[in-house]
Amino acid sequence: MAYSTRRASHESSANINTNSGNCRTSSIDNGVNSSTITSSRRLSMDNSVGSYVQATVIAQGPPVAFYGSCAIGDIFYIHGGIRIRGDRAPSNRMFMFHRNTWTEITTDESPALSYHRCVVMGNGQYIVTIGGWDGSKRKSDVHVYDVVNGTWYQAPVPGFPSGGGLNNHAVIPMKSNDAAVLVIGRDGSLRTQRKHGDAYCLRGDPAKRNFRWEQYPIAVDSRSGHSLIGHGSSLYIIGGRADHLIQQYTGLPVENQNICNSLYSDLKQMMKSNEISPMKKLPSTRKDHASLPCGSDLAIVYGGETFDGKLREPSNEIFVVTLGAHGQWYNLGQIEFGRQGHTMVCLGDRIIVHGGLGKTGVCGETFLIDLIR
User: Fold this and answer.
1) Given CB 3.0 to 4.6 Å as the disulfide criterion, which of 53, 100, 176, 277 pairs with 34?
2) Do the domain assignments include residue 1?
3) pLDDT digit string (tens) for 175-233?
4) Are 118 and 128 in contact (CB under 8 A)?
5) What is the greatest pairwise CA distance in the chain?
6) What is the CA radius of gyration of the chain?
7) H or E element at residue 213
8) 61 CB neighbour count, 10 Å cutoff
9) Where are the extended beta strands (E) located within 92-184?
10) The domain spanning residue 44 has which CATH number?
């Protein structure tokens, strides 16, 4: 992908390194089809930083934030979430995005959840939802959606601390013959809503409807609204608290399910040619952002709510961070859309963003993020 000149304007084996059935089917487009394209960009408020990214709206879908999501092949799935800012009652609706079209695939068995997480299991046959908020309490439940048959079931899953639950946590698959997912808190008492920093491992086989919880022997800081990226034998935890923007744990066998490769060579070339330079000061730590691994040793971080109080609305900043012994952050500038509680995935060679909270409320735009060419 070519680019053009931009206008400037655990304690056990892990070590930590801190660096400050009845299916309703309908198409949703709200008057926007695949031939309707809106492109815009905004220069960084820091005039010394150029804008290297742009956003292109490709569809209008369901307005939703803090939902569960995943990508299987060239299809993007979203489930649950909230539809109105401040809403405590989660949705049970489920949609798939394919060829710039949103289609509802909600069934009667679909659970009502928000602030939950999804992983893909069974070679793409199953979407497994983990934890979440059901409108009155945090849950440690596991629900499974069979992509082939279009059906849901709730799996029995013993082993989680009594009275505890999960929401606004983060998950990443582990490299294991026994299907396993690492879950990094936020967990706590259903009654007192305490925050903890525990880590858990969810093991199971969705085909056999057999799951179990285990505590994972690493110590982690209490976080909420963070994201996880794997690199080699390291796990990176990004955001989720007012300090420690990024933390690295070594000796953890984790793997990324969705990776962007299309921008990798361009970004590496921009770094090599000094078109973009490492930030002298780390960006403000943030929560409810989205991150995406890029190539073998980069990650892209977009949006979220910052902890420094300088932004009164969701961030529209985009950064790229190098993963490794000497991690560095690069500011790619800003786009028109500030988002919080959204999702960013890679489908083919396209980075897709949908939903989240924006300046005026819960948003329904689906747009691409790309380098300005």
Assistant:
1) 100
2) no
3) 988 899 999 987 655 434 444 557 999 999 999 999 999 999 998 888 999 999 999 99
4) yes
5) 57
6) 20
7) strand 210-215
8) 25
9) 94-98, 101-104, 117-121, 126-133, 138-146, 151-155, 164-166, 170-173, 180-184
10) 2.120.10.80
